[in-house]
């Protein structure tokens, strides 16, 4: 008996410390009102408080700002990438012997084979072609390319080769001697005098400096040189010229030792500081200021969004602690589950915080790029592009306020666990088919030469793309493999298109039908929602404007209500710091 009295006294003291009223009924009524307001959507909260949903408006404005910013950056980045890609194509036409535009197209399967050399004479002709064209770059190139030295003097091309320390092959009696240690050697390529003429002759020059190329030992050989150029763009004050140094490397790869030496050209750009002057036709300083102010506006909107969302999450955590404390005192059995506590954490706010952080860093990168501080378009593009994607994902939250859209969103949400389990099971089948196709069909089918391309081919087949071409491009050199490919492809397409995809659709449709029944018969309520619904006040009656106000004052109070002008039907006030948007 004494223990029970002591327990009741402790509970009473705890409730006095935790809640504004000493009465359990008042504490319950107060918490119900807070929870009911917390679970309202922005429209209901607007009716309850007559206060504009600032976070909602901010998110909608931010969608427009971030999208416009990404479009502006996308146009600038497209021009930048186009300049670099076109420059690399120009270098291939300048320095690769017999290069044709057919190598630049991307048909599938490719119309032409690999650009490569197959004979020793072709190799030396290709190297000599590079050396001679480099010497005449300024004379023959349409683009403005100059040598990389400060005084525009031509620096020699550097030849480097990587080879085995020892390597001899006697194919006639199936024997060889090799040392797998790699060695790398570099030296400048200079012209030689032949019959009184100064020219570039690789064989003669190597013989002169006591060097040689042993193709049995050779792993790879590359020629390296640099050129400088200026990208003029549109010559506006917003798009000022950029200065670049292209570090060009022409690689002859002999790693496979299969008689084919593929030749590739890579041009890696390096941003330089420009020192030129441009006289513009019109003084358009306002455009520069507007671009900078727009980026600053996006930054300010993202920072404000972070502050508001962080505040809402903090308030929600506070309400969660208060709710846990209340149920622990007055309704301890059963205790609140983890899912009940998770209802206080709004995942949409987490999504907003992530895209705000990405937007802030992306905007900083964009400002630095526009002011020629950095040239990291890729990182900036990833940040801004991902942020914009998440911003548009966030719009789905507001579509959920409408019944028909909400059904679709709830279907995706409720079906996510089953879809994930299904994808795991389907992924086991898919990965098995990909490995099998790569290993068995790889030598005979161009689409299965790599594991990545085999996976891409199978994914295309699932979606009904390029089915006939996949069948038709199988080599007929091996009859067993040809018949196996037929069985493999028929079984895969039949299993995934007619069985697995049908099961996938049925998983989603089952959830959709369940959600529709809940809308018709009533949605099962969680413990917290059932507790909050015990407060019978309508959303628009939780807060009401004072009847003493005139019409004009009432209209003003809708947009700027004062606390003294509000009266509450229930005794306990609703917490202003609740998780509203």
SSE map:
Elements: H1 2-18, H2 24-38, H3 42-49, H4 54-95, E1 116-117, H5 120-135, H6 137-140, E2 146-147, E3 157-170, E4 175-189, E5 192-194, E6 197-199, H7 202-208, E7 218-231, E8 242-253, E9 261-272, H8 285-330, H9 338-342, H10 347-370, H11 377-399, H12 403-441, H13 451-462, H14 467-472, H15 479-521, H16 527-532, E10 544-545, H17 551-559, E11 566-567
Antiparallel strand pairs: 1-9, 2-7, 3-4, 3-7, 5-6, 7-8, 8-9, 10-11
Helix pairs in contact: 1-8, 2-8, 4-8, 4-11, 8-10, 10-11, 12-13, 12-15
Describe what this molecule looks like in 3D.
The chain has 581 residues and is α+β, with helices and mostly antiparallel strands. It is 55% helix and 14% strand. Strands 1, 2, 3, 4, 7, 8 and 9 form a 7-stranded antiparallel beta sheet that branches. It has a two-stranded antiparallel sheet with strand order 5-6. A hairpin with a 7-residue loop joins β8 (242-253) and β9 (261-272). α1 packs antiparallel against α8, α2 (24-38) packs antiparallel against α8 and α10 (347-370) runs antiparallel to α11 (377-399). Mean pLDDT is 82; it is low at 6-22 and 542-581.
Task: Name its key features.
581 residues, alpha+beta, seven-stranded antiparallel sheet, two-stranded antiparallel ribbon, 17 helices, extended, disordered C terminus
